[in-house]
Amino acid sequence: MLLVIDAGNTNVVFAVDDGEKWRGSWRISMQTQRTSDEYAVWLLTLLQNEGLSPADITGAAIGTVVPAAFYHLRQLCRQYFAIEPLVASPRLDWGFRIALDNPSEVGVDRLLNGLAAHRLYGGPIIVIDFGTATTFDVVGDDGTYLGGVIAPGINLSVEALHMAAARLPRIGIGRPEGGLVIGKNTNSAMRSGVFWGYVGLIEGIVERIKREIGAPMKVLATGGLAPLFSEGTDVFDHTDSELTINGLRFLFARNPEPPLDLEQDEAEEG
Questions:
Q1: Residue range of the domain that includes 134
Q2: How far apart are the first and last CA of the chain?
């Protein structure tokens, strides 16, 4: 079985694939100080609840955009599963071209989303990931990663609004009551601005990307807030909460043995 670890700026997702389906998927908050032993206490209990043991795990893949977390996640794989994990990097065999000025600077989460999106839904496709940042990734018909857009994540925007304006409260994220745009009080006005503002951002950027590509494109949403925003726009063709972990699964299938020189490079970066 394959253990995949998707470590983002906000959460770390662990999932186990048995070759036919996901046996389990679990989420924990990102804390760069969390040690491999702390991860193990938590994860091994969850595996046991699913009737799994460390011996069932025969491969592992890590995708992270948080360098400070990498060392402990790799140690988790080595110490508790006796596995050298594959570490997602632009230098691996992705099966497609990365058409960027500097491919090494792109976040591996974006490449993983592009890989999974093309494999599962075909191209050309726009992948919108509602994470710490809201990212738009563009994948060509042949799977080429063409680039994208990075915008502030909605939680960052809400927090910045509250911190920068003394009289504005901290609000929850949600669709305004009744779907109305005009708020009748400060709270509803802020909720409207955040929700419909992001709907406008999504629709506007998608339209401009399609115009720039000059061809019909599918649009796929992923990330925790994808279902919420699908209520406010019909721009999405699909939503997929498992996109990034599927990308790790596909990447591992193409790179079952990590290159030794790449492993050394990752060790130095960690």
A1: 103-243
A2: 26
Q: Is residue 109 annotated as part of the catalytic site, yes or no?
A: yes
CB 148 within 8 A of CB 137: yes
CATH at residue 76: 3.30.420.40
Q: Which of 17, 18, 56, 109 is catalytic?
A: 109
pLDDT digits (tens, 9 = 90+) for 223-233: 888 998 898 89
* pLDDT tens digits for range 103-154: 988 999 999 999 999 999 998 999 999 988 899 999 999 999 999 999 988 8
Query: Under a CB-based contact definition with an 8 Å cutoff, are residues 16 and 47 in contact?
Result: yes
The number of folded domains in the chain is 2
Query: In 176-194, which positions are buried (b, 16+ CB within 10 angstroms) versus exposed (e)?
Result: beeeeeeeeeeebbbbbbb
Distance, CA of 211 to CA of 216 (rounded, Å): 9
